[in-house]
Amino acid sequence: MFTVNNLIPLVLQQSGLDKALLGILVSCAGAGNILSGLWLARRRAGSAAHGATAAMARPALVQAAAFGGIGLMLGLHAPHLDLLLPAMFFVSGTLSARYAIALNVYMTTHFPTAIGGVSGRVQAWQNAMILVAPLLGAWVLDTRGAPALMAFAMLAAFGSLGVFRLLQAFGGQRFLEPKKMPAGRKEAGKGDRLEN
Question: CB 135: neighbour CB atoms within 10 A?
């Protein structure tokens, strides 16, 4: 997402589409996000409610595949792009909401005593991606074109999930947990407060 979002106007321009379509695409993505969020909020149960990794991975993978599909449409100059792209962005918006909710549930389920520190570290990683991804996306768009940019976004998402699964398999997700204060220092701190 971070690779593509800010470059959509240039993608439309390179593909010979009216840049005014950008407003429709953003609105469709927002509508999908809102409707999906409301629907998920009404659900009483489901895999996302239990912090399952698959509940977080599935929407991310399908959203990445959707970007790959958009790249294919642009590369093949598919007819009726002015109708197909809004539909694809609507689907992308629904998946974005599912992923965001599943990620929050995953963190609260697996890191219940350290949710503040974990959220901060996840936010730091996302901010780093926001800094780097648009630069890479702009380079791909300038050198390879819009279809390649969408394919790159898809592969980057698949690669990120693969790295996450490797970290999870080897216990690497512990890096998310903030360092715990030694018990001795905790007790000393309590004593100091009592003396004061």
Answer: 10
The H or E element that residue 50 is part of is none
> What is the spatial distance between Cα 175 and Cα 155, in angstroms, rounded to a whole number?
25
Eight-state DSSP code of residue 77: T
For 106-160, write each residue's pLDDT tens digit.
Answer: 888 877 777 778 788 888 888 888 888 888 889 999 999 999 999 998 998 888 8
Most confident of 4-8, 57-61, 149-153: 149-153
Q: Which amino acid is at 67?
A: F
Q: Give the C-alpha separation, 6 to 137, whole Å.
A: 9
pLDDT of 189 strictly over 50: no
Burial of 187 (0-12, 13-18, 19+ CB in 10 A): exposed
Q: Give whole-number Cα distances, 36 to 41, 67, 70, 98, in Å.
A: 8, 19, 21, 7
Put residue 43 in one of left, alpha, beta given phi > 0 → left and psi -120 to 50 → alpha: beta
Q: Is 16 left (phi over 0), alpha (psi -120 to 50) or beta?
A: left
